[in-house]
User: Fold this.
Amino acid sequence: MFNSRIIGLGKYLPDNVVTNDDLAKIMDTSNQWIVERTGINERRHIVKGSDDSPSTMAFKASKIALNRAGIKASELDMILFATLSPDLYFPGSGVLLQELLGISTCPSMDIRMQCSGFIYSIATADQFIKSGMYKNILVVGAENHSGGLDMSSRGRAVSVIFGDGAGAAVLTRENDENFGIKSSHLYSEGKYAKELSLIGPSTQRWVPEIMDANDPNDESYFPFMNGQMVFKHAITRFTEVINEGLKFNNWESKDINLLIPHQANLRISQFVQKKFGLSDSQVFNNIMNYGNTTAASIPIALTEAWEKNKIKPGDKIVLAAFGSGFTWGSTMIVW
Assistant:
């Protein structure tokens, strides 16, 4: 028997920094209003006309991760691409990344689990490796939110939160069962699907149908979020799924060397930190600088924590996410 283990990490953020003061110039908001509600100071947005897209950002992050892992793209057995903002309706961004990496053929799968996408992808990669089917798997999360946000006062409650970026991780077989991915715990509750959603365009509301309506007040183009409901459910589900992972592995909260939660809202992360009695050194947050990058947020944060030497061999690492669906999950790792 063997585990899967992360052996390489990489991240990429667009160059364009958008501060709270920048947003205050185009919508009815302020730095204080945003910081008090989200903890965000700035985020990265793709400039229109640039060559950044979910697949190209994933490519840049993946090259770094592969280099750090010490393997070539040709040695990959599979690509798992987590995103809610693919380059195209179809095909998925995974195959676009495969082509950019210069891989002639390999299975490439998009995983559309929004904020929980990276956790679901890590769990999927872990099972493919543990089954013996594949050895080396590239897992990426990449998002282009800025191209689909309502950057007006009408959309400020959502639009001030989201940023663009990509993070990547290379997983491989680990023969020592004391290290690597120890467990993952995944859930969904579809009755709340529309509480955090993008309704149209979709296969239920075709693009020509919407265009023919030509309604300037049609907000269905833009993301909708029932903020209070999302917050309430997030703090409950984060707590439950982290506790489940701790119990499954016979860990206690004091054993956690680093918790990296999905960077949805700094207030949520702080609530979870307090709930488990964790010190500031036991929790890593970077939403202040990047905003919520959905499926990319955990791999970006994981990469940054590793780059800052906050993760060392043998450390117990907990990853946890909650998001649209509703979906949520946790992954427990011994580094």
